[in-house]
């Protein structure tokens, strides 16, 4: 967990300013016990990660005017959190690998919807992936997050094709 906590600190304390720096360079997530992690390794070092969990309460609830609106999203929900990629690996396949692995698992495990709190500066990217805003941006430390959701059945075809290409690339390597 040290690599996950290190990258969590780098992204959410040092870079985004959502959390205060800890002095140790490590940041423990409050949902760590109920989360599963998808990680990318390079030379045995965590260079990318995202956390997923399906147990309420969801962190997105803090960013909604009415958390009960999540009840209007039918089916099984999977919250995707803490997407972080080491700055040296942001132009490679790390993002595709994390996203592709998470989405493959979500489909295989029977989830119907993904929930995220997207960083305001990246909302356009999340929209291209098929996410839609559930409310206005909400401040958290120096960062601002937008509560968003996507029904997996409504994922854009081009995203599905990108995942297929990533899978082919992965299987060739």
Characterise the protein shown here.
It is a single chain. With 173 residues, the chain is of the alpha+beta class. It has a single domain, classed as Gcn5-related N-acetyltransferase (GNAT) (Aminopeptidase), CATH 3.40.630. A hairpin with a 2-residue loop joins strand 1 and strand 2. Helix 2 crosses helix 4. The two termini are 27 Å apart.
Features:
173 residues; alpha+beta; Aminopeptidase; 7-stranded mixed β-sheet; 4 helices; 27% strand
Beta-strand segment tally: 7
Shape by Cα distribution: globular
**Runs with pLDDT <50, length 5+?**
none
Overall mean pLDDT: 93
* CATH fold-level name: Aminopeptidase
Largest sheet: 7 strands, mixed
CATH superfamily: Gcn5-related N-acetyltransferase (GNAT)
Query: How large is the radius of gyration?
Result: 16 Å
* Distance from first to last alpha carbon: 27 Å
H/I helix tally: 4
Helix and strand topology:
Blueprint: H1 2-15, E1 36-42, E2 45-53, E3 77-85, H2 94-108, E4 113-119, H3 123-129, E5 132-133, E6 138-140, E7 143-151, H4 157-172
Helix pairs in contact: 2-4
